[in-house]
Amino acid sequence: METLKDKIQELEKEEIIKALKECGWVMARAARRLGITERMITYKIDKYGIRTKEVRWVDPNGERQINER
Fold it and tell me: What is the pTM of this model?
């Protein structure tokens, strides 16, 4: 039996994946779209085991950094 907690976590995971796809897998943009911090999206990506070939970060200087996951 699936609990309410399980359903909420599945919905959260789906929304994070949707935001990442819509933002070209740039975590900073996806976090802003979701109304959470970059730190929180990183935590949730790890928590839910979301894997991408490359997750792009935009640092404060506007330079892109690639993190392999």
Answer: 0.74
For 53, residues 6+ apart whose C-beta sits below 8 A from its C-beta are 68, 69
Mean pLDDT of 18-33: 94
- DSSP assigned state of 53: S
CATH topology of domain 4-68: Arc Repressor Mutant, subunit A (1.10.10)
CA distance 51 to 69: 6
Backbone φ and ψ of 6, nearest 5°: -60, -45
Dihedral sign computed on CA atoms, order 40, 7, 20, 29: negative
